[in-house]
Amino acid sequence: MLRIIAVIISFFLFAGGEAVPSYSFENPESVLLSAVILSDIHTETNSPSRFGKIGSTLKGVWSGDECPDVIAFAGDNTMNGQSLEWFDFYGLVYRFNKGSDVLVAMGNHDFGNTDDTQVYDKLSERAVSAYNSYCSADIDSVYYSKDYGTARFIILGSESNAKDTLSVITDSQIDWLESELADCARSGKTAVVINHNLIRGRNGRQSYFAFNLTTNNDRLDSALQNSGAKVIYVCGHSHFGIGEGSLTTDGNVTYINLPSAGNDGNYDAEGDNSEHGIGLLAEFYDGRTVLRFHNFAKGKTLETFEI
Asked: What three-state secondary structure class fits 292?
C-alpha cells in the first residue's frame, strides 16, 4: 500500500516530461542478464528541478520495449536521509519500473552527510527499513547480496559515519565479501560489487582525493584482486563526468566510477559527458559482458566497452 501511495504522489512531483529516446540490448535474444546502475540521484523534497532530472532519468531506463532485469543504485539516493525523501525516491522508481528487481546501496547523504555516529545509527536503520518496505525485501544490514545466476550483485555499505565522507568498511564486512567472491569464483559467476565510495588509485585522479575514499582501502582492493572471480566494481560519490578514470581494468577487476545521475555539471567533463542522467547499462552474455555509459534522460550512448 505504501508503495502505491508513493507512486500516486510521484505524479505531482514529475508530470512526465518529453518522450525519451529508447535503447535496446545489443542482442536481446541471447542476453542472459541485464542491469542498469545509477548513482547519486540525490532526491530532495524541496527541489522541483531535481525531481525533473530524476524523473526523466528513470523514465528513460524503461523507455523501450526492453526491461532490465535489475536496476541498482550506488548510493546518495536521498539528499538528507529523510523519510519523505525515501518516499519520493521509491515512488518515482516504481512509477516507471516495468518489472526490474531493485537493489539499493547507501551513501553518505543517505546517512545524514555528517560524522555523527548517532545520526548514522538512526538513518541507517531508516534506510534499511525503507528498502524492505518499498521493495518487499528482508535485508538486515547495509551490506547484502543477491544472486541472478549469471552474476551476483554484492552491495557494500558504510558501517558508520566518518569525517570527510569516508565510507567505513570493517574487517568483518570484508571477511563476508571474500566469502561471497570465493563462491562466485567457484561457480563461475561475475561479481558485481557496488560501493558508494571509490578505491584509492583505481578511478583516475578523483580516486586520490581523501574525501572520495573507503577505509580499509588496501584490504578491500586485495579482496577484489585475489578473489579468482571476474569482478566489476561500481562506485559513485565523486560527481566526476565520463572521462579518464571512469572505467579502468586491472587483472580480473574492472573499476567503474559513475557520475551523478541527478546533478548537472559533473566535474572534469563537458557537454554530453557531464549532464544528468548518465548511468551504466550492463549486458551479460555467454562468455562476455558489454558495458555502456548511457544517458538515460537524453537517450544517448556515450561509450561502450566489452570485457
From this structure: strand
Q: Do 113 and 158 contact (CB within 8 A), yes or no? A: no
Q: How many CB atoms lie within 10 A of CB 285?
A: 16
C-alpha distances (whole Å) from 3 to each of 53, 78, 135, 159, 235 are 21, 17, 8, 27, 27
Place of cell 581523501: 210
Residue 282's CB: how many other CB atoms inside 10 A? Answer: 25
* pLDDT class of 65 with cuts at 50, 70, 90: confident
Region of residue 251 (left: phi > 0; alpha: psi -120 to 50; beta: else): left
Distance (Å, rounded) from C-alpha 62 to C-alpha 60? 5
Local structure of 235: helix, strand or coil: strand
C-alpha cell at 40: 547519486
For the domain 2-306, what is the CATH code?
A: 3.60.21.10
**CA 232 to each of CA 32, 211, 224, 288, 289: distance values in angstroms, whole numbers, following the listed order:** 17, 22, 9, 12, 10
The band of 263, judged by pLDDT with boundaries at 50, 70 and 90, is: confident
Instruction: Show the cell assigned to 186.
Output: 567457484
Predicted confidence (pLDDT) per residue in 147-157, tens digit: 999 999 999 99
Kindly calculate the radius of gyration of the chain based on its CA atoms and give it in whole angstroms: 18
- The number of C-alpha atoms within 13 Å of 307 and in the hemisphere containing its C-beta is 20
**Alpha carbon distance 196, 307 (integer Å):** 23
More confident residue, 32 or 244: 32
Q: Where are the domains of the chain?
A: 2-306
* Cell 578523483, located at residue: 206
Rounded to 10°, the helix 48-61/2-13 angle is 110
Question: How many residues are present in the chain?
Answer: 307
